[in-house]
Amino acid sequence: MAIDAGATDVTIVFLEPPDAPAATQAITNLGEIGLACFSVMQQKILDSDLKTAMRVNDSAQSGAKPRRRIPLWTIRPKTPLGVSVLQFDNQPGIDAIYQQGLADAANPVLVSGG
């Protein structure tokens, strides 16, 4: 859809390092179980979407409706973020991961196209 809308490149921003193990934390209630499940599911969906985008990009010229091949970039943190979604009141932690995000974004990785 992004290519059809005129995108010249796409950057995917992940919130987990590559091959990050599932976070281990004490689960004390049903809400935390749901949040942990959502986090795992979200990461798997993003990984699957990236693989699909790479396949579509790599076969761009061979389909019935040829598409432009565009660069696909990823940005991933090098280490796990130290703040969860529910810690919106942790300003020092948010400031730290913001700075980490700026540093990680300075070196996007080309995964397809280019």
Characterise this structure.
By secondary structure, the protein is α+β, with helices and mostly antiparallel strands. It has one domain (10-112). 39% of the residues lie in helices and 11% in strands. The chain contains 2 helices and 3 strands. The chain has helices spanning 30-58, 91-105; strands spanning 10-13, 72-75, 109-112. A 3-stranded mixed β-sheet has the order 1-2-3. Helix 1 links the parallel strand 1 and strand 2. The mean pLDDT is 82.
Query: Uncertain regions: pLDDT < 50 for 5+ in a row?
Result: none
- Structural class determined from secondary elements: alpha+beta
Helix content: 25-40%
Rg, rounded, reads 17 Å
How many domains comprise the coordinates?
1
Q: Can you give the mean pLDDT?
A: 82
Order of SSEs, N→C? Answer: EHEHE
Number of strands: 3
Shape: elongated
Major sheet characteristics: 3 strands, mixed
Count of helix runs: 2
Query: How far apart, in Å, are the first and last alpha carbons?
Result: 18 Å
Percent of sequence in beta strands: 5-15%
Strand order of the largest sheet: 1-2-3
Supply the key terms.
114 residues; 11% strand; alpha+beta; 2 helices
How do the strands and helices of this protein lay out in sequence?
Elements: E1 10-13, H1 30-58, E2 72-75, H2 91-105, E3 109-112
Parallel strand pairs: 1-2
Antiparallel strand pairs: 2-3
Gist?
With 114 residues, the protein is α+β, with helices and mostly antiparallel strands. The protein has helices at residues 30-58, 91-105; strands at 10-13, 72-75, 109-112.
